Amino acid sequence: MYIPCPLCEEAEGSDDECKTDTTLPCKHTINSSLVPPTIYECAQLGLLDELQRLLLQRSKTSEWSVNTPDNQNATLLHWASFYNQLHVIKYLLALPHINVNAVGGDLLSTPLYWAAHRNNIQAVALLLDHHADPTIADKHGFDAYFVAVQSGYTILSAFFIAKGCNIDTPSQDADRLTPLMWLCRYKFELDTARMLFGLGANVHETDAHGNTALHLAATSDFVVAAKYLLDRGVDIHAKNKRGQTALDIANDVASDIETRTSGKRTAATVGLLRSVYRYDESYNTLPVSVLKRHAGLTAFWTPWFVMGLIGVAAHKLDGRDVVVGIAASVAFGYWLVKVAGLDVNPSKLKYSRLMFGVNVHSIFWITFGVALLVAEGALYVHATMVFFVFFTGTCVCVYWTTTTSPGLLSTTIQERHRNVMDLVAMHSRPEVKFCSTCLQHRPLRSKHNVELNACVARFDHFCTFVANVVGANNHTFYFGFLFNSVMGIGVYLAMIVDYLAREGVLNEPTYWRTLARVGHNYPVVLSISILAAVHIVWIGGLLVANIYGILFTWTTNERVLQSRSQAKTSSLHSKFSRGVVQNVVDFFHFPLGDELDRIDWRRCRFYSLDELHARPSKAKLE
Q1: Which of 28, 143, 436, 451 has the most CB atoms around its CB within 10 Å?
Q2: How are beta strands 440-442 and 11-12 bridged, if at all?
């Protein structure tokens, strides 16, 4: 017989089942005597034998049943679900007259609700398997799925959806909020919100007052929620039943905050929404509206126009007019950036279009400079041929890096549901990382990328200069882009130095006079050479970092995480390294040695280091 202490709830056992000596003191609490447990305490503490014994005694009286509540209006199943006593829950659910949907407690809620409130996901699974109704709401109108979202239990919320709950089920109260709306109004949990977005939550739903989720985010001044809603196409012009847009609400909230803080603070959301509304109402007349409608192309071509105009100004104008021309070119570029909306709800993905344009136009202008000198017969043929070999390699590698999928680990909605149910059923290994956004198991070296909203195999980084993630599928092409660019720019600069030396420009007595002469007599050559010198510095740095990563198996993401880690390592090699030679073979996919000894991260999925360092098998190839 187990007798719990009422203060510390520690249970004491006795060899004699009939012995219930309440005079014995508790071992952990001074001046506290042990008392026999009530049947409800047995459910709370998981004392199944004692519960069965007391149930047998109670069954002899007609006034009590297994569904009878205690003085807190809670049944045995409520308490077992609340404290996650799975063996007690299984026993109770096997009883013939158990009411799995009994309503109790102060909130008049079900055992499923109690289990969800405590994130007891195994108890939830048991109750659902025994036909517990997840749509029964408490006295405030919130059901078990809703309370899981409110509490920020991402996996549990996804499990309810996988078991058939409507992702946009409204609360059963006067407000009629969906779970996404509730997050935007009261407590924005980013992981839970991403999960809801990933499973198809509708951002256009409205509550009983006509508010969208954006209205509610503006009401609570949750700027992150507003950004995510805008990224997913929420209607910024939607009005509630009072005729207010989200911006109207944000202005009211900002005014209230400014009044309370004497102008020291304002709402964070109002600046974002004002810029979005201002941009939406601007640049709507032809031909500017065409540029706005094709914002990505506008951003891409902006550096082409700017650098072209700067080149014309430097070549055609003289004296002070050169400065004016360059300033006008920069101002025109700034205007194009505004038309493309890059500063409205900014993101890496938006700016990558501009930076990709910088990358491609730089390649073009350097090649254009070589072509001009070739036309004048100023360069050696063999050096020019070498340059164009590297130029071709750069163009090919940039194209494949940008257009090739980096290794997206895609899943359908049905697969996500199955993954969550497998996780709850404990079919998944606990050491395997689980992405709460994509709802899938993440292999080693993979990472969820916000820009692409997907997990990427052997994630390296998101590169704005190629407008894509660098991952398992395109990292080799990215390395080719770095290598060919550095070599091509190096050959170009060497040819320019040789050309200027043959022209006698480098014979000036000082560097300043040399620079002045080059700028006066060869403005195009100087401009392109400065552009080339800037690019070779940062591209060369990336090339060195990538060579280091290839030799010792580091990705950019892994180096960043290692630099933040408190557990520093003195080894050059990462934990995924298999030796320098094998690392190089794996990265470039060289057909050397036994095929099963090579690791192709494009196809292999490893979930532990033991799997990685063991001999790969065909079973691991997907």
Answers
A1: 143
A2: unpaired
Q: What is the pLDDT of residue 15?
A: 45
Residue 502 corresponds to which tokens in the numbers above?
């043959």
Cα dist. 524→327, 361, 370, 527 in Å? Answer: 18, 15, 11, 5
Closest Cα partner for 366 from 385, 391, 383, 349? 391
| 3-state secondary structure at position 410 | coil
CB 112 within 8 A of CB 143: no
Same domain, 195 and 87: yes
Q: What is the DSSP string of 112-155?
A: HHHHHHTT-HHHHHHHHHTT--TT---TTS--HHHHHHHTT-HH
| pLDDT tens digits along 324-334 | 988 999 999 99
Please check whether residue 378 lies inside any domain of the structure: no
**Residue 462: enclosing H or E segment and its boundaries?**
strand 461-463
Instruction: Let me know: does 428 contact 472? Beta carbons within 8 Å.
Output: no
Query: Is the domain of 268 the same as that of 332?
Result: no
In a domain, 545, yes or no: no
What's the residue count for the chain? Answer: 622
The verdict on 161 and 262 lying in the same domain is: yes
Instruction: List the structure tokens of 2.
Output: 């187990």
Distance CA 488, CA 394 (A): 8
Q: What angle do CA 394, 396, 400 make, to 5 degrees?
A: 115
Question: 551 burial class (0-12, 13-18, 19+ CB within 10 angstroms)?
Answer: middle
Residue type, 294: H
Exposure on the CB side of residue 547, measured as CA atoms within 13 A: 8
From the list 564, 376, 574, the residue with the least C-alpha distance to 458 is: 574
How far apart (Å, rounded) are the C-alpha atoms in residues 519 and 517? 5
Cα separation values, 474 from 452, 456, 463, Å? 15, 11, 12
Q: CA 337, CA 343: separation in Å to the nearest integer? A: 8
Per the domain annotation, does 372 fall within a domain? no
Q: Show Cβ contacts of residue 535 under 8 Å, excluding neighbours closer than 6 positions.
A: 362, 485, 489
Residues 452, 458, 459, 460: is their CA dihedral positive or negative?
negative
Residue 279 corresponds to which tokens in the numbers above? 């941009």
Residue 596 carries which side chain, given as an amino acid letter?
A: L
Region of residue 322 (left: phi > 0; alpha: psi -120 to 50; beta: else): alpha
Residue 161 maps to a domain:
yes
CB atoms within 10 A of CB 175: 16
Q: In which element (H, E) is residue 449 found?
A: strand 447-449
Q: Are 219 and 249 in contact (CB under 8 A)?
A: yes
Q: What pLDDT score was predicted for residue 18? A: 40
pTM of the model: 0.83
Q: Average the pLDDT over 172-181 and give the result.
A: 94
User: Which tens digits make up the pLDDT trace of 508-559?
Assistant: 777 777 777 777 777 778 888 888 999 999 999 999 999 999 999 999 998 9
Report the half-sphere exposure of 315 (CA within 13 A, side-chain side): 12
Query: How far apart are the C-alpha atoms of 123 and 83, rounded to whole Å?
Result: 9
